[in-house]
């Protein structure tokens, strides 16, 4: 069941999420591969991860619904300061095991331990259905847009 007042997806452009890097760290660090230099099999697999994350975050699981409720509450403008606390884009560092299951996710904290735990729970419960392509570096950094989509 959708939270009361639910008027669309808060996980806005996830289907078109930018898949950032393959490997650990920022683009300038050794060992990372920018998406435009990655083999097509890696990019396709990362898009598969994005699609699974999108479906999970739009799902009916209690943790997904709590995360939606958190976003709706946080996106309500505060009279003094406007929307508070949640970045518009979250970078999610994702590790996938040999069976295709998500084994670990990391992201910068955004100030609400329960919402962070819910997001981690939803994403960590995913399986992308198959192992990463041979030689694919991890973590895969997936950027999730949290803009409202009506």
TrEMBL record:
It comes from the Bacteria. Residues 1-30 form the signal peptide. This is YbaB/EbfC DNA-binding family protein. Keywords: Signal.
């Amino acid at each position: 069941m959708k939270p009361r007042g639910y008027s669309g997806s808060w996980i806005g452009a996830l289907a078109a999420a930018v898949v950032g890097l393959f490997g650990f760290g920022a683009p300038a660090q050794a060992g990372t591969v920018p998406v435009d230099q990655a083999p097509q099999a890696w990019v396709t697999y990362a898009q598969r991860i994005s699609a699974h994350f999108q479906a999970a975050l739009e799902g009916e699981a209690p943790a997904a619904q709590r995360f939606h409720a958190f976003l709706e509450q946080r996106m309500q403008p505060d009279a003094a300061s406007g929307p508070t606390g949640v970045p518009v884009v979250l970078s999610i560092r994702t590790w996938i095991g040999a069976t295709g299951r998500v084994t670990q996710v990391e992201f910068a904290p955004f100030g609400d331990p329960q919402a962070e735990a819910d997001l981690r729970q939803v994403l960590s419960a995913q399986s992308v259905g198959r192992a990463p392509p041979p030689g694919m570096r991890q973590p895969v950094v997936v950027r999730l847009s949290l803009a409202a989509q009506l």
